[in-house]
């Protein structure tokens, strides 16, 4: 049986990331990039599909984990009958190649240890040829080569590398794993102790720019570190998660590849970085965004590769059993969908960047004018919506809302920054879209916005209505929508995206999934801006309690099983956490909070 998703921690080097289990096993690592083939894929199968175990040889009585301060250096302590041992896991900031450093330290007693390294390239499919070269262990197959360097004696057995050793108080046993293209010479050796200090210094130095000093600093800092861990440093792109195909419901079929960059994440990510003091990262993300969407607005995709790649062909890695027996998907076919809302997200992201002095006057405005020409012509078209349904296009209300955002931010670009554009035409478009939403996307009888025009279904995405400035949080139509969502979409106090099971054919998939954490944070925001501060804080604290022992969140939460579900760690959960902490910190009163949020968003 695989570990529960919450039993993993993440380490990374801002090019890729590894998942380390509570049992001491690295079960997922793609090199050299987030979207490369995995050399450890046991999370989607068994140890035969690649893993690196470093743990006590005798039964473990207790496990404790923590990150060292404000860093991505992970410490795991194992208590056994013989004593206590500590394993330190980290990936140094990328130099010439990706490295994983593991240091075993004796704490108490003398603890026998075991090391099992089973390398499998191309998502567990390829068994490498392993040999020794000047004391190093080298594994090679096709374009991939991996070096293991350690003073500990190792041996080969059952197509894997093993070691047995023991550590006492003060003892250290280091292991360094390095990947390089197989045609290149061996990597330069690293000093593990020096790299440990340098890695701690790197993360602490980066976090020193953080300006958040509110009540929930620990949670915000860990979320910011996670966001940085999901950043591909060479381009500034930020992946949605480090994994693929971890299911949104145990036993369900909703399992997708999230190792790509979604335009939809752009606005909230940019705002979180800017608010928290990370101007350089916000600037890099904005540059990635502009490069990715450059070209014909009609060809703009909802997501791109970490360097802006457009072709994200989806296939099933059918040689892997999959987490919980589900198919493992590589690539994401949703990249080919038409989702109208991303035009509003992009316009909003660039508007927020200007408001924060990220190049108020630059060529981006010319691209935005072209985006607006597309929105003017296509805002009435049906689309697949924010949830990327696979049951056909509809007139989704949230999509129309974001088309309104696009027009509104275009008008603001002229009004607030003196940029050149047909402001009167855009104002008329904004008014037309607003009237259309209020006529067709609002159910007067039930007093709630609906998922799509003519539907009776609810959609938690419509919690964004006050957050984007369309209506104030105390408007009766917003209050009615919140009340309907509380009545129909709350499951054990957390928000589902939409009714489960949905109307036939809406998302093209069987019903059943966990509560969507981003939507739950949005509900807390709505409470805060409506003056329901106690309820906002109570919901936020319950959401914080869902984090695992090292402060990480996946995409969703299964209230019945009491488990995190979905890809992990998930940017679209950690970014709303940062936003909600900010909103609660600044919500001094109903009117002041609404005024501050309205200014920030619009």
- CATH hierarchy class name of the largest domain: Mainly Alpha
* Number of structural domains: 2
Roughly what is the average pLDDT, rounded to an integer?
Answer: 92
Low-confidence stretches: 588-602
Which class of secondary structure composition applies to the elements? alpha+beta
Question: The biggest beta sheet, please?
Answer: 8 strands, antiparallel
Query: How helix-rich are the residues, as a percent range?
Result: 25-40%
- The CATH topology annotation of the largest domain reads as Glycosyltransferase
Multimerization status: single chain
Strand count: 29
Distance between the ends: 49 Å
Give the strand content. Answer: 15-25%
- Work out the helix count: 15
Radius of gyration: 25 Å
CATH-scheme architecture of the largest domain:
Alpha/alpha barrel
The gross shape turns out to be globular
Domain GH15-like: 217-581
Protein name: Glycoside hydrolase family 15 protein
GO molecular function, one term: hydrolase activity
Domain Trehalase-like N-terminal: 4-152
């Amino acid at each position: 049986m695989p570990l529960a998703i919450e039993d993993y921690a993440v380490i990374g080097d801002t090019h890729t990331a590894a998942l380390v289990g509570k049992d001491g096993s690295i079960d997922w690592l793609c090199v050299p990039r987030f979207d490369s083939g995995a050399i450890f894929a046991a999370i989607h199968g068994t140890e035969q599909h690649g893993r690196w175990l470093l743990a006590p040889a005798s039964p473990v009585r207790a496990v404790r984990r923590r990150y060292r301060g404000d860093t991505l250096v992970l410490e795991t302590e194992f208590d056994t009958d013989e004593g206590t041992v500590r394993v330190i896991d980290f990936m140094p900031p990328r130099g010439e190649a990706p490295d994983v450093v593991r240091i075993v330290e004796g704490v108490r007693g003398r603890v026998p240890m075991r090391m099992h390294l089973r390398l499998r390239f191309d998502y567990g499919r390829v068994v490498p040829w392993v040999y020794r070269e000047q004391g190093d262990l080298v594994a090679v197959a096709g374009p991939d080569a991996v070096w293991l360097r350690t003073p500990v004696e190792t041996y080969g057995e059952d197509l894997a590398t093993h070691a047995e050793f023991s550590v006492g108080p003060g003892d250290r046993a280091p292991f360094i794993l390095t990947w390089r293209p197989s045609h290149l010479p061996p990597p330069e050796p690293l000093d593990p102790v020096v790299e440990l200090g340098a890695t701690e210094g790197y993360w602490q130095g980066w976090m020193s720019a953080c300006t958040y000093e509110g009540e929930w600093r620990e949670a915000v800092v860990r979320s910011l570190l996670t966001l940085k861990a999901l950043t591909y440093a060479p381009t500034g792109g930020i992946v949605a998660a480090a994994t693929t195909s971890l299911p949104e419901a145990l036993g369900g079929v909703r399992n997708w590849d999230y190792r790509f960059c979604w335009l939809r994440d752009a606005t909230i990510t940019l705002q979180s970085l800017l608010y928290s003091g990370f101007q350089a990262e916000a600037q890099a993300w904005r540059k990635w965004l502009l490069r990715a969407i450059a070209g014909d607005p009609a060809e703009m995709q909802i997501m791109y590769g970490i360097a802006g790649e457009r072709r994200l062909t989806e296939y099933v890695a059918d040689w892997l059993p999959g987490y919980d027996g589900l198919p493992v998907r590589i690539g994401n076919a949703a990249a080919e969908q038409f989702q109208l809302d991303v035009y509003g997200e992009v316009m909003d992201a660039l508007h927020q960047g200007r408001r924060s002095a990220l190049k108020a006057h630059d060529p981006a405005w010319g691209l935005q004018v072209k985006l607006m020409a597309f929105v003017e012509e296509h805002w009435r078209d049906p689309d697949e919506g924010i949830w990327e349904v696979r049951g056909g296009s509809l007139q989704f209300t949230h999509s129309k809302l974001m088309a309104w955002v696009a027009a509104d931010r275009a008008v603001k670009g002229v009004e607030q920054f003196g940029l050149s554009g047909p402001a009167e035409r855009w104002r008329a478009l904004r008014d037309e879209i607003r009237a259309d939403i209020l006529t067709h996307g609002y159910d007067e009888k039930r007093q709630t916005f609906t998922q799509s025009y003519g539907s009776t279904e609810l959609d938690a995405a419509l919690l964004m209505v006050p957050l984007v400035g369309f209506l104030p949080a105390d408007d009766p139509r917003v209050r009615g929508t919140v009340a309907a969502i509380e009545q129909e979409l709350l499951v054990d106090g957390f928000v589902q995206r939409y009714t489960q099971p949905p109307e036939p054919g809406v998302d093209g998939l069987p019903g059943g999934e966990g509560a969507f954490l981003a939507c739950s944070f949005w509900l807390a925001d709505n409470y805060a801006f409506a003056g329901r501060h106690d309820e906002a804080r109570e919901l936020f604290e319950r959401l914080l309690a869902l984090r695992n022992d090292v402060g990480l969140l996946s995409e969703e939460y299964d209230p019945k099983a009491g488990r995190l579900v979905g890809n992990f760690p998930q940017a679209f959960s950690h970014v709303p956490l940062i936003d909600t902490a900010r909103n609660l910190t600044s919500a001094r009163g109903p009117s002041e909070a609404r005024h501050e949020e309205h200014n920030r968003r619009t």
